[in-house]
Amino acid sequence: MDDHKLKVFCTVVETKSFSKASEIIRLTQPAVSLQIQALEETYGTKLFNRSGCLITMTPAGETLYRYAKEISALYSDAEKEIGKLTGHVKGAIILGASSTIGNYVMPSVISDFRKKFPTVKVHLLIGNSKSIVEYLAGGGIDVGFIEGEVNKQKLVAEKIISDEMVLIISANHPWIKRHNVPVSELSKEPFILREEGSGTRQMIEKYLAKHNVLPQSIKIALIMGSTESIKSAVENGLGISIVSKWAAKKELRYGTLKTVSFKEDKFLRDFSLLRRKTRDISHTLENFLEFLKSYPFDKALNS
Q: Can you list the domains of the chain with their CATH numbers?
């Protein structure tokens, strides 16, 4: 049996959508339909009931799905056993990450991992947290990394490290000599925010509200669609903002941005690893996760 067809089938089952499955597997929707049609012709029966946008498995589909997951687990077990016998770690892993951890943390992790395992290919997909959860649930990525609050659904979430959100100001801002500022004083300065719906923006608004600073009291100078554009605007004196310390790492080192502490408390969130609840983890992914557990994040942040 063609295991690629089984992978397509399982992705349709797990996403309950031909269109989402096509996006995750990176095939056109007609190509996904052809793969399912080929399986149905092989077994001489329908695998899905289709009623408008609703897709459910037939009894035959449920049986095939159960065996397909067992086959996938057996593939992983065989790979692990052979890897242990040969001592070789090779193949490919596909990681998904939301913007901050994907752009500012994972590149150094992946680089150091490949120095240790040069024959492994690592693919990194960056998207918002919702899309990363969807890709993971549908089997389009092996593991996901997201920042902030986690909607676990049918996934396993594990905290990797804490991420400190810091107040950034330009190098010639009047606050440059201050050790800290009360959160209430943020309402006195032009503030640069991410766009509506951004997870980072939601966390900032939640933190401000915790300290009795309502969104309507903030003087919003600009709304930007990326952390990079926010940093550039702050560097040019257009306002202040709050970003991950990881995101400001380079600018802090070169002195183009400065940080000021909050008087009340640190603004922390979690970087989390997301995995599916399954035993079919490849030998290569197993080695990556072991590498991740002992990775010196503090050293990487301060280098």
A: 3-83 (1.10.10.10), 88-161+270-302 (3.40.190.10), 164-267 (3.40.190.10)
φ/ψ (deg, to 5) at 128: -75, 170
CA distances from 159 to 33, 129, 185, 246, 270 (A): 38, 15, 32, 16, 6
CB 269 within 8 A of CB 162: yes
Main-chain phi, psi angles of 179, to 5 degrees: -80, -35
- Rounded CA separation 204/220 (Å): 13
Q: Enumerate residues 6+ apart whose C-beta is below 8 A from 282.
A: 76, 79, 80, 91, 93, 142
**Radius of gyration for the chain, computed over Cα atoms and rounded to the nearest angstrom:** 23
Helix (H) or strand (E) holding 210: helix 199-210
DSSP per residue, 122-188: EEEEE--HHHHHHHHHTTSSSEEEEES----TTEEEEEEEEEEEEEEEETT-GGGG-SEE-GGGGGG
pLDDT averaged over 10-residue windows placed end to end, the chain, 303 residues: 77 84 81 87 89 85 88 76 72 88 93 92 87 81 84 79 93 90 92 83 89 88 92 95 94 92 90 82 87 92 84
Give the Cα-Cα-Cα angle 86, 92, 93 (nearest 5 degrees).
Answer: 115
Euclidean distance between CA atoms 18 and 118, whole angstroms? 36
Question: What's the predicted TM-score (pTM) here?
Answer: 0.74
